[in-house]
Design a protein that fits this description.
MetI-like fold, about 65% helix, Multiple sugar transport system permease protein/putative aldouronate transport system permease protein, sugar transport, MetI-like, transport, membrane
Length: about 300
Amino acid sequence: MRHSTARAPKRQRTMIDGMPTPGLPERIVKGVFLTGICALVVFPFIGVISTSLAPAEEVTKAGGFVMFPTEGIDLSAYRSILAGGTVTQALLVSAFITAVGTAMALILTCTLGWALSRRGTLGNRPILLLVLISLLFNPGLIPSYLVVQQFGLLDSLWAVIVPVCVSAFNVIVVRAYFVGLPAEIIDSARIDGASEWKLFWHIGMPLSKAVVAVIGLFYGVGYWNSFFSAMLYIDDSSKWPLQLVLRTYVVNGVELGGQDLGVGSEALPPQTSIQMAILMISIIPILCVYPFIQRHFAKGVLTGAVKG
């Protein structure tokens, strides 16, 4: 009689990491629930895209909102808002604010985070304490306005960029990431004669691409979506960013005329199509950038937040 010692009974796994696997009814309920949540998110987005691309006759016939265009695709709404009028100007302003603001914010945040991560830095503890205190106590609206006014930044794009170019939370995340860098690499570079600037630029920054990408995404999205500070500090409508134009002409329902868009009134698409096209223009840049940053997202945030 032969005995097999390596043979094990075939049993379906019922435990995963100590937790029971969900049964079929439970999985069905979860699938239906998640499908419903996805539908709530996706269907309005499809409606916005469809309305912006639908012909004027179909939009008028549908009463202003089209879920699926059946009479073809019409790009006249996009041609109208990008013809050189208010929306085009606002798009250029938002691009300038986002590009310049993100670059400034990354430079200041990374350099401050590196300085605070080095134990021998002059004033390390007091400055770090000030950064931590700013996480708990935010300035009020009136003091912030008075500071911007005293610096002569009112009705200027710098009023939207400068006051928020350093985030205390992002500084703490970057500092924690720098603290977690291998000390052996930094010590060996010091022995080879590397200065503090070379340590930061040639060692710290290349090893922190993940956290820099995530922090850059945070800053970029914040600058691109900023409208409240522009509403407070900027009176000249030619300096309005895209989000303030979106709020004015889409949320508040103010109609865009031909003189605002730079086209003739006779060729003007329905207002609903124009509003949905503005909404799509404000969403597309972030949708294009996020897939390239997403692979760094979890690594950058979790590593920077846990270490240190």
